[in-house]
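STRUCTURE:
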């Protein structure tokens, strides 16, 4: 049993960084598969059993008892594997964040965030696919269910302040003949439409990520879509050129898809 405890410790350490390992060496997928299979074997052999006596008859120390009690508790292996997936996703997020450039100007930064959210969604859909299959087939663990909340949280923090402050800067647009004769007003209207369009593209990128989460049986909190709720009621007004009630329907305090 002590050997199993040591194996589980090292196996989980591997799982916590498996995205980096697999990305640098495709052969690591084979190692990942056998680690998952052996963790499942340990789970089936140990969980639900009483802690066996020490081979030399002595008492286990406190740390040993704690590890042995954990490995024999039903459902423990699944919980540890799920936590390892979430941690690995967090490490991989940092790698993606360092790889995707972010502009500083408001308009360009919004486009950078849109691209970043799309990269995260694509990674969930395709980058995780081999691991998704292995964890599901061998252990019945939903990989995306653990990975999605990590990306959801990060996408929220990146987009919230930018989206809300940008929404607050948008001005209602009323079309009349006078606008065509006023170059300053005409330019301001054009800028508002451009910024509003980019903001709406950000909304759609977040919506796309949320839909993928829901499609994978995730009860998505969708709290990151509420980043628009503080100032997006203007989008239901008929004066706004981007009014699309079917996609952008708001209620006080929340955003419905």
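SEQUENCE:
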């Amino acid at each position: 049993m002590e050997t199993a405890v040591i194996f589980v410790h090292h196996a989980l350490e591997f799982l916590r960084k498996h995205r980096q390992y697999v990305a640098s060496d495709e052969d690591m997928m084979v190692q990942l598969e056998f680690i998952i299979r052996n963790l499942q074997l340990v789970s089936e052999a140990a969980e639900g059993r009483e802690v066996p006596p020490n081979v030399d008859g002595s008492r286990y120390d406190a740390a040993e008892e704690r590890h042995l009690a954990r490995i024999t508790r039903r459902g423990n292996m699944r919980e540890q594997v799920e936590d390892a997936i979430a941690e690995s996703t967090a490490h991989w997020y940092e790698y993606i964040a360092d790889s995707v450039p972010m502009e500083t100007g408001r308009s360009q930064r919004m486009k950078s965030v849109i691209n970043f959210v799309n990269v995260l969604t694509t990674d969930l859909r395709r980058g995780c696919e081999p691991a998704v299959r292995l964890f599901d087939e061998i252990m019945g663990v939903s990989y995306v269910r653990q990975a999605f909340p990590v990306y959801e949280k990060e996408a929220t923090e990146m987009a919230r302040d930018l989206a809300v402050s940008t929404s607050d800067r948008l001005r209602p647009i009323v079309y009349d003949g006078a606008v065509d004769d006023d170059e300053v007003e005409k330019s301001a209207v054009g800028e508002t439409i451009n910024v509003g369009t980019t903001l709406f593209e950000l909304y759609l990128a977040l919506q796309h990520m949320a839909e993928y989460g829901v499609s994978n049986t995730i009860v998505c909190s969708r709290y990151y879509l509420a980043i628009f709720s503080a100032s997006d009621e203007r989008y239901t007004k008929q004066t706004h050129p981007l009014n699309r009630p079917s996609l952008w329907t708001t209620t006080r305090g929340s955003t419905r898809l």
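REMARK: The CA atoms of residues 99 and 229 lie 30 Å apart.
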